Amino acid sequence: MFAEEQGGVHPYLTDTFSVDLGVYFPERQLRVRVDSPTGGPGDTISFQGDLQDRRSDEVFSLNFSWRFGEKWQLVGQYFKSKGSREAVLEKDIEWKDLVIGAGSSISAGQEFTLTRVFFARDFSIKERHEFGIGAGFHWLELGASISGNINDGSGAAGAIRTESVSASAPLPNIGAWYVYSISPDWAFKSRLDWLSASVGAYDGRLINASLGIDYKIFRNAGVGLSYNVFDLDVGVKKSGWHGRWDSTYQGPYAYLSLSW
């Protein structure tokens, strides 16, 4: 019955609006470097090595698509990750103007927010296939901090200090996507966004990719599962933070899909 209503094509290829709401379960890897204000390079702190913070996060995520005209789409994506970890350092590290001595008890935190806006054109000519390319931007908010019982090498052993850095900016990107309607109920979906350039105070690489499948339970609602990868390796040169942010999020994304 559903197949007859849709004429053999998954509604994702024909409906004007679609929304995916779900939970992203990424394996997170993060490395942060904060240079000295005097110009000396700081140490790269691995949240998975130095702080032993390797774990899976549950992150809410949202995807949105609006078709307008015959061949155009506006696409949006949002997710946010936040976490912290306590550790006793096994070696000295440099962070901003601090030399944090081995044996210091610290709490390190990170916060990352992604908002993606993408404007694209469909170039497909076959009913069951959709292929398009476009351009857009990722608005990124990056933040990391260290606080606790810090030995800063100045003789004030055991002093409590908190040092944090943050940055936010839009990074442009180009991308492509492909969707194949396996049947009126099943659709294969994939996309790739990419950037490697110097933009203002940022210099680095961004990759945002997804590969998955969507199943329609009802005419306007279904479920889906995809494997998402987001990789950001960027140098930062802003007042208050000269350094680097290198993060990777990869893992399954389970969602409820709506279209109309």
Mean pLDDT: 85
Q: Indicate the percent of residues in helices.
A: under 10%
Low-confidence parts, pLDDT < 50 over ≥5 residues? 1-6
- Report strand order across the widest sheet: 1-4-5-8-9-10-11-12-13-14
- Could you give the count of β-strands? 14
CATH class: Mainly Beta
Query: What is the 3D form?
Result: elongated
CATH superfamily: OPCA outer membrane adhesin/invasin
From the alpha carbons, calculate the radius of gyration and give it in angstroms. 22 Å
Report on this structure:
- The longest helix is centred in the first third of the chain and has 5 residues.
- The strands form 2 sheets. Strands 1-4-5-8-9-10-11-12-13-14 form a 10-stranded antiparallel barrel.
- The N terminus is likely disordered.
- The chain is built from 1 helix and 14 strands.
- It is mainly β and 260 residues long.
- The chain has a single domain, classed as OPCA outer membrane adhesin/invasin (Lipocalin), CATH 2.40.128.100.
